[in-house]
Design goal:
disordered N terminus, 7 strands, five-stranded mixed sheet
């Protein structure tokens, strides 16, 4: 018996070749995928639905060989609740900034400090769709929660053993009972 795995879904693409971009003025773009493309993006990001997605902006020269992408991401998405899996709507509206540097130097060393700098190496092709998908993935809530959804306390133990609860894990949980015993011991010696 053979099992088939689903082939990865190809995401939409809107490539701009860097060599063809204007060297003195901005190149404007708009990425507004159709319903089928939004379905592919939703599937790739684990969304229940992606009713709207738009990335509109421009790529402009910065210095002699570098480029700067500035855009506005607007999206409506429906994510599964991280507790109940119920649909949780989300609205995203935020700026997107990328700097593409011709002389980009990757940080070196065992320990690298992570900065807020949105710089990356200058590619031959800038895929506007890929920028939109990445920006959307970063902007969506990591742990969406439906209204009223709460994580309960999971309590497990072997038969005949009292289960530990979250309160028992508190390092100061036993101090109250210790204080009570000390008070009783002090009162018994009088």
């Amino acid at each position: 018996m053979t099992t088939q795995t689903a082939a990865p879904t190809a995401l939409p693409s809107q490539p701009l070749r860097v060599a063809t971009l204007a060297s003195r003025k901005p190149t404007r773009f708009a990425f507004r995928p159709d319903g089928a493309a939004r379905e592919m993006i939703a599937a790739a990001l684990g969304l229940l639905d992606l009713p709207a997605l738009e990335l509109v902006g421009e790529i402009r020269p910065e210095g002699r060989r570098d480029l700067r992408l500035e855009a506005r991401l607007v999206a409506e998405a429906v994510q599964p609740c991280s507790v109940t899996l119920a649909p949780v709507p989300a609205k995203v509206e935020e700026p997107v900034l990328r700097r593409y540097l011709a002389d980009y130097a990757a940080p070196q060393g065992d320990e690298v400090e992570i900065t807020e700098d949105e710089s990356e190496p200058l590619p031959e092709v800038i895929d506007i769709a890929a920028v939109a998908v990445e920006a959307l993935a970063l902007a969506l809530p990591a742990w969406p929660r439906a209204p009223g959804a709460e994580l309960g306390e999971a309590v497990f133990a072997e038969p005949g053993v009292a289960p530990m609860r979250q309160a028992d894990l508190n390092p100061f949980a036993g101090l109250a009972s210790l204080a009570e015993r000390l008070k009783k011991d002090d009162g018994a010696g009088e």
